[in-house]
Structures are given as C-alpha cells and as structure tokens.
Amino acid sequence: xxxxxxxxxxxxxxxxxxxxxxxxxxxxxxxxxxxxxxxxxxxxxxxxxxxxxxxxxxxxxxxxxxxxxxxxxxxxxxxxxxxxxxxxxxxxxxxxxxxxxxxxxxxxxxxxxxxxxxxxxxxxxxxxxxxxxxxxxxx
Length: 139
Prior knowledge:
Layout: E1 10-12, E2 27-30, E3 33-36, H1 53-71, E4 78-85, H2 91-101, E5 108-113, E6 123-130
Parallel strand pairs: 4-5
Antiparallel strand pairs: 1-2, 2-3, 3-6, 4-6
C-alpha cells in the first residue's frame, strides 16, 4: 500500500554532503528540529570512502555539518548524536575529534558497536539538531 507523505517533514538536501544512495533523505526538518540520516565518511565530490578511521570520523562530521548548514543550523545546534562503530578501540578517536568540534556543552550521545556498515565504513554518525529561533524557515 502506498502511503502519503502528508506527515513527513521537509527534505533537506545539499551538494556539500554525499547524495543519498538509497530511499532516504540527507536530512529532514520537522518544525525546528533537524534529523540527519546516518553519515559515513564519503567524500561528497567523489562518493568514495576516505581512508582511515580519523578521516572517516572527520568526513562524517563534515557531512553532518553541511546538512545542518543547509537547514540553517550548525554543529553547535546538535542536541543528540548516535555513533555506530565497527571497532571498539576507535571510540577514543571519536571522543578526541568531538572535543575539537564541540566547544562547551557536548550533545547527548548514544554509542553503538556494530558488525557491519555500508560500503565497508568504520563509522556512521547521525544527528538531531534544533534550528535556531532566529532562522526563518520556509513554508
């Protein structure tokens, strides 16, 4: 049965993050809340996975930042992250990079160990952000 999209929020898209490789949106806005799809370390220009765990973490956050910016938000607006990692030993890299990217209060975070991620990625990160009140939202 085909379902209507009447309840789905506004789709957020940007060329500064990888295009969706399946039946999902880069991000969705509902009211002032932004929900990103999980981002792996794909370079948006080549759609190839960058090399190394640190590069993948940084690229995942760069992709999230681009989606946030397309919606009128920044990394500082993120209220919740979910981080999926294949290797437990890589959590220290995530913590260190997050300490560089988030100044002041950190977002809430759920950390999940997984067996597999798309395209052989080592990390996938999704975010929930609140779009600031001073940003005018399109209808």
